[in-house]
Amino acid sequence: MGGATPVDDEASLIAQLRAGDESAYEQVVRTYGGRLLAVTRRIVGSEEDARDIVQDAFLNAFKSVDRFEGNSKLSTWLHRIAVNAALMKLRTRKRKPEQSIESLLPAFLDDGHHEERFKSWEEPVDIAMERAETRQLVRAKIDELPDGYRTVLVLRDIEGLDTEETANMLGLSVNATKIRLHRARQALRTLLAPHLGTSPAAGEAAS
Amino acid sequence: MKCRELAEFLMDYVSGELPEENRSHFELHLERCRNCREYLVQYEGCVKAGRIACGATSDELPADVPEDLVKAVLAARKLEPSS
């Protein structure tokens, strides 16, 4: 590992960063790079863009480490920088008009009942998620959500930001953020429902 | 309360933010409607699935950060004027 000295204590790691210690920079990149890559990739949907964003995010963080106040964790601070950069990228890209999410939302009859009869899930989600291919499938379905909904879901449900912070980052009202999160979750359910709830073995037995 | 309204209130319900008055109507409907109970299970299940699939311990994360990214960051940093 290029002679990087392990540093357990975050405060001393930050002190080393401020002192310009090369091994501290390396340690930060190795410790947090994987998670930052994953979240930026999920937001921008491109491995190449994600790498550029993460690289810039680290450079910005290193440059402004003097302004890091230590009232949040280093990882939280880094995430914020990277997520903001990823959202910025998404905004400047704005390739296609926002896809509609309507077709992925539940439909209702005139009397207010669901149109669909939901088939009961016989396999608990925890069990299904023990399979690598199911985890992969869930990630692929999240990636299919329209940008404006996927970003809210990623920030709220995966990054664990609260509604207000998510709203600020996205330039949305708190209410619009809540509506988007709810729709994103409903859409994800529509996309995942055909695949969850039955184990592959049970599926074979039934067919 | 109809299924349509229940679906609308779902997020507030699962986050414990549904006001008491609506909550009793919500729960009454839930008790009587198997379809909405299943919808609730699946809604919560999908939130959980997302967390597990993409969360901090996800198998999506590479065990090692790509070596060229580490090198690129460290090289680019040296080019920056020091603060």
Structure explained in plain terms:
The complex is a heterodimer of chains A (about 210) and B (about 80). With about 210 residues, chain A is mainly alpha-helical. Chain A is about 65% helix and about 0% strand. Chain A contains 10 helices and no strands. Chain A starts with 9 loop residues before the first helix and ends with a helix. Chain B is elongated. The longest helix of chain B is centred in the middle third of the chain and has 21 residues, at about 35-55. In chain B, α1 (about 5-15) crosses α2 (about 20-30) and α1 packs parallel to α3. With about 80 residues, chain B is mainly alpha-helical. The relative contact order of chain B is 0.10. Chains A and B meet through α2, α3, α5, α6 and α7 of A and α1, α3 and α4 of B.
In a nutshell, what does this entry contain?
The complex is a heterodimer of chains A (207) and B (83). Chain A is mainly alpha-helical and 207 residues long.
Helices and strands, with pairings:
The complex is a heterodimer of chains A (207) and B (83).
Chain A: H1 10-18, H2 22-44, H3 47-63, H4 74-93, H5 125-128, H6 132-144, H7 147-158, H8 163-170, H9 174-192, H10 200-206
Helix pairs in contact in A: 1-2, 2-3, 2-4, 2-7, 3-4, 7-8, 7-9, 8-9
Chain B: H1 3-14, H2 20-32, H3 34-54, H4 67-79
Beta strands of chain B, count: 0
Q: Count of helical segments of chain B?
A: 4
How many H/I helical runs of chain A?
A: 10
Low-confidence regions of chain B: none
Largest beta-sheet details of chain B: none
Structural class of chain A: mainly alpha
Kindly list the characteristics that best describe this protein:
heterodimer; A: 207 residues; mainly alpha; B: 83 residues
